[in-house]
Design goal:
Bound molecules: beta-D-galactopyranuronic acid
Order of helices and strands: HHEEEEEEHEHHHHEHEHHEHHEEH
Helix content: 25-40%
Radius of gyration: 22 Å
Structural class: alpha/beta
Number of helices: 13
Strand content: 15-25%
């Protein structure tokens, strides 16, 4: 009895001290050690996929694995959705039109979509990405409604109790670079991620995982917040297909950080996205989970349990047991153009792990006759490398900057070309 008690209290103290120990991220490359990655081309029976056709089948196998282990199921049911134009405003001295639309799903859940399109006739390719802190933070235009749900931003003077105030207008405009995007001949579309699901462990309660649970036929715990955001990106794409000025075959999905994770997951599930951009998506995004550098699986599933399936945290410090790694997630994007970007001052996201994640998609891109990143070494600062898969590490901190946008526009300009001087139709 005494021994049992002693054991119980020892175990209890052990657990307590583990929980109390602050997490110290490994930031020493020499301590990462060597890792062995699963081969995207290796089928469950051990044989190797040799052509595109076989890969298409293998692709579904991997998608299913990611659904079962990490991000959860994706609803297969299509819901009726309707839209309403809220406002149309000429901006940038007449160079662009800003649209605000309300998008409603089965009358049960509504989100607000912001669009900035060039003010000229003809269809344009668009960038589509979720924003963190409300549409009003992407531009100073006063006609954009202030987002009224919880956001993670809480800068004094701009937000109060995590709710955007009038002063938050344009707070994150530098991450959107609307003028630059319009000048290059593209449109830009965004929705606050919290309009689909607030970024909180309890966010599912008033997010689409609850409001649409019956219609979608999925329980909240069967998928995840990242899943809900990715679903939101696809539903926004459905809506964009109904807008005559938008070339819906050229929707480039992008996202920064946690929203970059959502963009990758959206691109994997929805092959309509013509190109995918991951800006510093890090752990659970482009970075390899098997590399213990910066944020790791233990830390992310403890800080943000709602982003993934509950059971994903069982792989903490057992990353080698994962059936996949994040290079396989990105292989699911092939043969579409993929841009993975890091920042030197954002070691938390493991830039080298993001680079290696992008590089290890090569075998799949080659099945399509494309060179992905190619056999390049980890590049120097501000030196993009690669072809159909591109990578850069820029100087500076965790952010999505003017430099990043310049490179994304150059990349999609080569591959997803905007139509110049298009005729009226
Ligand atoms: C961090 C998180 C990262 C990344 C980042 C962000 O706190 O650890 O995985 O998603 O937030 O979204 O800015």
């Amino acid at each position: 009895m005494k021994t049992a008690l002693l054991l119980v209290s020892l175990t209890f103290c052990g657990l307590l001290s583990m929980a109390q120990q602050p997490f110290v991220a490994n930031m020493d490359e020499s301590k990462v050690g060597s890792i062995t990655l699963p081969n995207p081309l290796q089928k469950p029976d051990g044989t190797i996929v040799k052509n595109k056709k076989a890969w298409e089948k293998q692709r579904l196998y991997w998608l299913d694995q990611f659904q079962k282990v990490m991000y959860g199921k994706m609803p297969s049911k299509k819901l009726p959705q309707s839209s309403q134009l809220v406002s149309r405003t000429e901006i940038m001295g007449g160079k662009a039109i800003q649209y605000v639309w309300a998008l409603t799903f089965t009358g049960k859940h509504s989100v607000t979509v912001l669009g900035v399109l060039p003010n000229k006739p003809g269809k344009v390719p668009v960038f589509l990405g979720l924003n963190f802190c409300g549409n009003q933070t992407t531009s100073t235009e006063p006609s954009i409604p202030i987002f009224e749900k919880y956001v993670i931003c809480n800068e004094a003077g701009q937000f109060k109790n995590n709710l955007g105030q009038a002063e938050s207008r344009g707070a994150w405009a530098s991450r959107w670079q609307f003028e630059k995007v319009i000048a290059a001949g593209y449109g830009s579309i965004t929705v606050a991620c919290g309009d689909f699901e607030e970024d909180l462990p309890t966010g599912y309660r008033n997010g689409i995982r609850s409001t649409l649970a019956d219609q979608l036929g999925l329980k909240a715990e069967e998928w995840s917040c990242i899943g809900a955001w990715a679903w939101g990106l696809s539903r926004t794409a459905d809506f964009l297909e109904t807008i005559p000025q938008i070339d819906a075959k050229k929707i480039i999905v992008h996202g920064h950080s946690r929203l970059g994770k959502a963009a990758l997951w959206a691109g994997a599930n929805d092959q309509r996205f013509a190109a995918i951009i991951s800006n510093e998506s890090g752990e659970g995004g482009a970075a390899l989970s098997r590399r213990n550098y910066g944020e790791n699986l233990w830390r992310i599933t403890n800080s943000f349990p709602h982003w993934f399936l509950n059971s994903y945290k069982d792989y903490a410090y057992k990353e080698n047991d994962l059936p996949f790694d994040q290079h396989i997630l990105m292989s699911l994007l092939a043969p579409r153009p993929l841009y993975v970007a890091s920042a030197m001052g954002d070691q938390w996201s493991d830039p080298r792990g993001e680079f290696l994640g992008a590089q290890n998609t090569e075998a799949v891109y080659q099945l399509y006759g494309k060179t992905g990143l190619g056999t390049v070494a980890f590049p120097g600062l501000n030196t993009p490398v690669g072809q159909q898969v591109r990578y850069h590490i820029r100087e500076g901190k965790h952010d999505m900057t003017d430099y990043d946008w310049g490179e994304y526009l150059r990349f999609v300009g080569e591959i997803v070309k905007p139509v110049k001087n298009h005729p009226q139709h």
